[in-house]
């Protein structure tokens, strides 16, 4: 069975734009109440990032070597049900209500409520909802190429942004874990037959880790170039510096873990539910 990783770029889209890193599940001294967390999701744009997880569902059949078209509208209904945006937001709220402390919430909300923060969120939200990721990547790569030719400092800024995204270097392994859980769930549900057991699959993913890391770094640069092309150097610099602050890092660590867990959870559910599909019986 040939292993491919199309989900990586799709998940990276949200990862790159939200500048999220991994977190440890420690309980804060004072958790925020649900109403404030709802407002926090909106002001930071994380609500739209959660919604955009649904776009990654289109990669699922390719990962499994299954033709979604054979299931007709059954597939569309299933994907919409599993990746229901209200359900994903509710899952996020359940976690954040018990883990996001008031100090971190206020710090991040304060930045994103500023004039620059509001403009950044609008740009990021618009980029999240671009369904054709290939078009966005191509456009971003052209921008990066032009910046390199011009000797612009923007490329270095975007690289710093990438470092702020994944300071602990755990993003690649988290993405591989999402795919691992999806493939194992699909195998257990009888959707696919794998020639590899769990240990062999992990070993294969370990071999692919370096290549995936380079791919994600390139994807991150292109996504940033596309998303922030209307901002000045000074504005991008200010954003990078804000993302590097310790308080913001704590927020991004938490949000990223939430996003990873919800993505993995929904893909596992999708794998189990795909066993219900019947090829050739569209309604």
From TrEMBL:
Keywords: Signal. Pfam families: DUF2059. Residues 86-128 form the DUF2059 domain. Residues 1-31 form the signal peptide. It comes from the Bacteria. InterPro entries: DUF2059 (IPR018637). This is DUF2059 domain-containing protein.
């Amino acid at each position: 069975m040939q292993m491919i990783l199309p989900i990586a770029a799709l998940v990276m889209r949200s990862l790159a734009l939200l500048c999220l890193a991994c977190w440890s599940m420690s309980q804060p001294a004072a958790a925020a109440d649900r109403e404030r967390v709802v407002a926090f999701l909106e002001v930071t744009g994380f609500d739209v990032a959660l919604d955009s997880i649904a776009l990654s569902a289109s990669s699922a059949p390719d990962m499994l070597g299954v033709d979604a078209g054979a299931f007709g509208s059954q597939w569309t209904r299933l994907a919409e049900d599993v990746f229901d945006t209200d359900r994903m937001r509710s899952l996020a709220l359940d976690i954040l209500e018990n883990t996001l402390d008031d100090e971190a919430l206020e710090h991040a909300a304060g930045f994103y409520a500023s004039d620059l923060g509001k403009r950044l969120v609008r740009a990021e939200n618009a980029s999240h909802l671009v369904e054709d990721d290939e078009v966005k990547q191509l456009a971003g790569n052209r921008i990066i190429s032009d910046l390199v030719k011009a000797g612009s400092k923007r490329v270095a800024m975007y690289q710093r942004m990438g470092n702020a995204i994944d300071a602990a270097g755990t993003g690649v392994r988290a993405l591989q874990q999402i795919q691992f859980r999806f493939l194992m769930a699909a195998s257990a549900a009888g959707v696919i037959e794998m020639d590899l057991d769990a240990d062999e699959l992990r070993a294969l993913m370990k071999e692919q880790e370096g290549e995936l890391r380079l791919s994600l770094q390139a994807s991150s640069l292109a996504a940033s170039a596309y998303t922030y092309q209307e901002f000045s150097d000074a504005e991008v610099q200010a954003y990078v510096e804000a993302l590097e602050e310790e308080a913001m890092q704590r927020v991004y660590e938490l949000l990223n873990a939430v996003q990873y867990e919800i993505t993995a959870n929904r893909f596992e559910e999708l794998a189990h539910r795909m066993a219900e599909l019947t090829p050739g019986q569209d309604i």
